[in-house]
Amino acid sequence: MSDKFKYLLVCAVAFFFASQAWGQDAKLVEAAKKEGGKAVVYGSLESDTVGAIIKAFQKKTGLQVDYWRASATKVMDRAMSEYRAGKPLFDVMLTNAAPMHVMLNEGIFAKYNSPSAADFPKDAIDPNLGPRYRNVIAGIVYNKSIIKPADAPKSLEDLVNPKYKGKLVMPDPTQHTTTTQWVASLDKIMGKEKADKFVRDLAATKPILVESLLPAAERVTTGETPIAITYVKYVFIFGKKGAPMDYVRLGKMLGDGHYVALNNKAPHSSGGKAFIDYFIDDESMKIMAEMGEFVNRKGIYPPLPDAEKIQFVQMVNFDKKGFAAKKKEYSKLFLK
């Protein structure tokens, strides 16, 4: 077989599969237009990132997207309230693994096998929720104009040093689901004995507790509270706006996977499917990575210094009862 023939064969196969995928997209888009030409999305992914993806999606399909963003806990609570009332307004949900599994167990999601899922590593695909499209990684972030790099914490244990008392902000682990997971998972990178002591010591320092990870990072940008436990991606996101931020290179860092799923009572199911297909496709993944996200695509990293050196460690997941038990446990430590 000549090299020229091989090349033509490869091109023909690629064209065939691209045509097949576009055929499905076109049918979905046409069906979506008959449903109202839109998709309603609830999620915890930052609005700037979703806004860029929506803009590209609208340009490609002509479909509109209404996006409502809140913390993972609030997103889950609103979706479950609507569902139980029999009046779900959203088509697509995108948030982190723990609340997604809680909602999955409540029967909220339809199983949708998107053709775009084929490009994800097999170990990043959940049999019920589909691909884990990104990993969100939590660590120590600080304001460099207030705390010089030489004086910054070098480890998690450093956070309980008296010199940082009153300078640390973190989401409330008795309210914020992802932070509940983070605290409960520390043994995976510290060992049980060290983790138990660290959590007690951390609570004793009386960190400033806020609603979620974003406001924790925002307080660091202003210098109001110079150190935070939050997502490390905020160093890049707020750095673009001039905030003097950096993160502590911990090596192993805890995080959670995020998924996207279709409501099984979606008012605009075709629009929802079309959005999911685009959202987890290559174009959207590249937009996401460029805006600071750790996407599950080999060789694609956010423009964050040393991003490729971070060793992602998946946080533990709990069911509804498990979360309630942990939040009660942490109330005795952090709110006393």
Structure report:
The protein has 336 residues and is an alpha/beta fold. It folds into 2 domains: 36-133 and 258-298, 3-Layer(aba) Sandwich (D-Maltodextrin-Binding Protein, domain 2); 135-255 and 309-334, D-Maltodextrin-Binding Protein, domain 2 (3-Layer(aba) Sandwich), CATH 3.40.190. Helices cover 44% and strands 20% of the residues. It is built from 12 helices and 14 strands. It has helices at 3-35, 47-61, 72-84, 97-105, 177-185, 187-190, 192-204, 213-222, 234-239, 269-279, 282-290, 320-334, and strands at 38-43, 64-69, 92-96, 109-110, 125-126, 130-131, 134-143, 168-171, 208-210, 227-231, 245-247, 252-263, 294-295, 311-314. Strands 1, 2, 3, 4, 7, 8, 9, 10, 11, 12, 13 and 14 form a 12-stranded mixed beta sheet that branches. A two-stranded antiparallel sheet has the order 5-6. Strand 5 (125-126) and strand 6 (130-131) form a beta hairpin. Helix 1 packs antiparallel against helix 10, helix 3 packs parallel to helix 4 (97-105) and helix 5 (177-185) crosses helix 12 (320-334). The longest helix is centred in the first third of the chain and has 33 residues, at 3-35. The protein starts with a helix and ends with a helix. The relative contact order is 0.18. Mean pLDDT is 91; it is low at 4-23.
